[in-house]
Amino acid sequence: MDNAMVALTAETRSMRLEIAGFQSQISGLDQQEMTVEAQAASWTNRDQEFLQLCSRLTDLEDRGRRNNIRLLGIPEGTEGADIPSYLRDMLPKLTNTTFDPPLEFQRAHRLGPKKQDGKGRPCPIIACMLRHVQARQLLQTARTQGPLRLGTLEILLSADFSRETAERRRAFLSLRPRLRHLDVKFGLFEPARMWITKNGESRTFYDPEDLRMFLEGLHDTSQTMETMAQPSQDAQCQALGAGQPETVLDPDRRTATDSQTRGRDLERLTKTMTTGVKYYRQWRCIHCCPIDINPDPL
């Protein structure tokens, strides 16, 4: 009996030691968890700071490019060795505008490697103007006059943006077909923000993904409204004066001698089917072939 008690006591003591070790390990894990959570919160704050710095850097780059203009469509080699002098003489003729004082450029050059054979699309010319007012005037003239032509050449004149801003603008422009389909008025403003108006309410989006999610919500709402507004078959027949749909009688209940009754039933059934097909064609023409009356404001 004493030996058993001694063994039990020893086993209990060892279990207490093991439990104490487990508690110590748990305390250590709790401490490590707190440390990891603090580090995760620190990294989250750093990520937000990094995104803010990237946004500020993009804004600074766009502001540094405000005096720049891009020209696309000028064949390579026509500008000669002095591109600023070529642009000083060519841009007033291209825009049919007189500039006072004359246009002045800080620098101008082509982007990309020079094409030796002259084949393919010419590289664009980027020019940094001395006066911001003249750069805005050129861009406004290009918007109002439409395609600019110099002889047989069609030249595109646009503003210069950073890579991030240019990607956002392309993402916004890719949503134009959906905006027209949903009858939403829209406009893209510099540097990259989309303004829309729907049912008299205006909103401004700075992120193309936010605009895409907003349009998906509008699409789901319009589908629900069309489903609720679609009339039933009985209402269609009543609206066309055909009454309730006719019930086809069982042929086994008809007698072979009742040819007049069978003829009347066949005539009514043919009239109902003809009226239903006519209504279906009208409904399909109205609901499946909408007319796009929203012009492109861009």
TrEMBL record:
Comp. bias regions, Basic and acidic residues: 250-263
Alphabetical list of InterPro entries matching this protein: Transposase_22
Sequence segments annotated as region (Disordered): 243-263
Organismal lineage: Eukaryota, Metazoa, Chordata, Craniata, Vertebrata
Organism domain of life: Eukaryota
The protein's name in its UniProt record: Uncharacterized protein
